[in-house]
Write a structure and sequence with these properties.
Helix 6 packs parallel to helix 7. This protein has 367 residues and is α/β, with parallel strands linked by helices. It is globular and about 60 Å long. Helices cover 43% and strands 16% of the residues. 52% of the residues are buried. The strands form 3 sheets. The protein has a 7-stranded mixed β-sheet with strand order 7-6-8-9-10-13-14, sandwiched between helices. Strands 2-1-3-4-5 form a 5-stranded parallel β-sheet, with helices on both faces. It has a two-stranded antiparallel sheet with strand order 11-12. The N terminus is likely disordered.
Length: 367
């Protein structure tokens, strides 16, 4: 009876003797599709590599991804399905803070680890026993952006953000970085509707402040549309985005309007083959996806998957959610191959690494 009980508990936690089930809600359609697909495929590239080598402690890793089309309500419903119907061991790689936040009550109710939400938003950085962030915060990124420009005597900054909880936090992060230097935004555009932002109105609001730098914290299509219209109306401001839209996705959306746009990244450039995890990722991604459209996003997902697998290994063959989280808490300084991630029992923000990249005239990233 004890054996059956233990077996039943393990199955309920998404673990069998041969498999670990991980769940993901991501936009595989809709306005943020490219980001969701890249997150999924980057993780799958590493999980496939591990599975081909025999898995972790004899178990293969299966990622179950359900499309949320970038709709918050759908992401919440998907979370319930993944936990209560699919019985996943852990959640992974939701594409934003707004998609992640509805998962938190269910994560806490069922004590499910929530791994590598693709966001640096402050509301997701507050310590939560079950949430593990693998990357730097948007505050880290926005501080880096402001710090880059202020030695150049640039003082006129504008901010483009969403008029919601997460968007306002992003604005606050920029405002805080500016205030440290005795500055304040000269103009702001706050979009009330993520799905249908008023680009024309936003450009008008921002350009009236005659900014030297426009900082974006919006999805890649909104950001690209804004930059194209602002340029068409004569703005010569530096255009700078945080990592939220995905550097590669924003680059594609901008097309010929891309040169000169600066983007913060939270992983090394995917062309920097001197970093071991980058060359490893490129080989694994090409093998899994049968394509070479490498991106910052799929590299970030690959690194996150590698951290997850290290936690599974350290948790040992008698895998439970609790000993898995204990194993992650013990990864004080894990080297994923030239990229360090570290957790503790009271700090689940794994990295603060940020670098700025710029789109060159040949439409490739320069560093």
């Amino acid at each position: 009876i004890i054996l059956l009980s233990v077996s039943g508990e393990l199955r309920a936690q998404g673990v069998t003797s041969t498999q670990v089930l991980i769940g993901q809600s991501a936009p595989l359609s809709g306005i943020n599709r490219e980001l969701g697909v890249d997150i999924r495929d980057g993780a799958l590239a590493y999980f496939r590599k591990v599975n081909d080598a025999g898995g972790v402690n004899g178990r293969k890793i299966e990622l179950v991804t359900i499309d949320d089309a970038n709709v918050v309500k759908t992401a919440g419903e998907n979370t319930r399905k993944l936990i209560e119907e699919n019985g996943v061991f852990a959640l992974f790689g939701y594409a934003s803070a707004t998609l992640s936040r509805p998962a938190l009550p269910l994560v806490e109710q069922h004590r499910v680890p929530f791994l590598a939400p693709f966001t640096g938003a402050d509301p997701m950085r507050v310590f939560n026993r079950y949430v593990y962030n693998m990357r730097a915060s948007y505050a880290d990124e926005l501080e880096k952006v402001v710090d880059h420009f202020t030695p150049l005597a640039v003082k006129r900054f504008a901010v483009v953000h969403y008029d919601d909880v997460v968007g306002k936090e992003n604005f606050t992060a920029v405002d805080r970085a500016l205030k440290k230097r005795g500055l304040a935004p000269v103009s702001v555009a706050a979009f009330k509707d993520r799905a249908k932002p008023d680009i024309e109105g936003g450009v008008k609001d921002v350009l009236k402040g005659q900014p030297d730098v426009i900082i974006f914290t919006t999805l890649y299509k909104a950001t690209a549309d804004f930059i194209k219209l602002a340029r068409a109306q004569g703005s010569s401001a530096f255009m700078v985005s945080n990592s939220f839209p995905g550097a590669s996705q924003l680059q594609k959306e901008l097309g010929k309007s891309g040169p000169g746009v600066i983007i913060a990244s939270v992983v090394p450039p995917y062309a920097r083959l001197s970093v071991p995890v980058v060359s490893e990722y490129r080989a694994a991604f090409e093998k899994h996806a049968n394509r070479k459209d490498f991106s910052f996003t799929s590299l970030e997902a690959y690194i996150s998957a590698k951290v997850i697998v290290e936690g599974l290994r350290k948790a040992g063959p008698k895998l439970t959610r609790e000993n898995f989280m204990q194993a992650l808490d013990g990864l004080v300084s894990y080297d994923a191959g030239g990229y360090l991630v570290g957790f503790s029992g009271n700090d689940h923000n794994g990295s603060s690494w940020v670098e700025l990249t710029i789109i060159g005239k040949d439409l490739t990233f320069k560093h």
